[in-house]
Prior knowledge:
Layout: E1 3-7, H1 11-23, E2 29-33, H2 36-48, E3 61-64, H3 73-83, E4 92-97, H4 102-109, E5 114-119, H5 124-134
Parallel strand pairs: 1-2, 1-3, 3-4, 4-5
Helix pairs in contact: 2-3
Amino acid sequence: MNKVLCIDDDVITLMLCKTTIRKAEFSKEIITAYNGQEAIEYYDTLAQNIQNSDNQSYPQIIFLDLNMPVLGGWEFLDDFMNLFYTKFTETKVVILSSSVDPKDRERAEKYPIVIDFCSKPITKEMLNNIKNKLS
């Protein structure tokens, strides 16, 4: 992975996510957003410059929390699907949540971009499983 995006409103969770990704050598670059709105604005900027970019210049994986202020994970997914799905076809989402509600897992399966639903915190084993799913 050249680039990943971690979206979570919890600073400690973001720090753990970044540390684990770095230690596992999962990605060369880690971008963070504190809510779905920040992430949408990030993708909006990328979309404006897409003619000059390739799949190396935008995140291939998004680690997404569900419960966040401003714009939550579900709303982010809906907006991403409506606005950016056709522009960033290589991007996949891993929901990284503390939710144990089976309805959340079922709902996640309805999004073609979501490749996994994991419980926090992120681990090296999770990253290895994600690598295997993508290869």
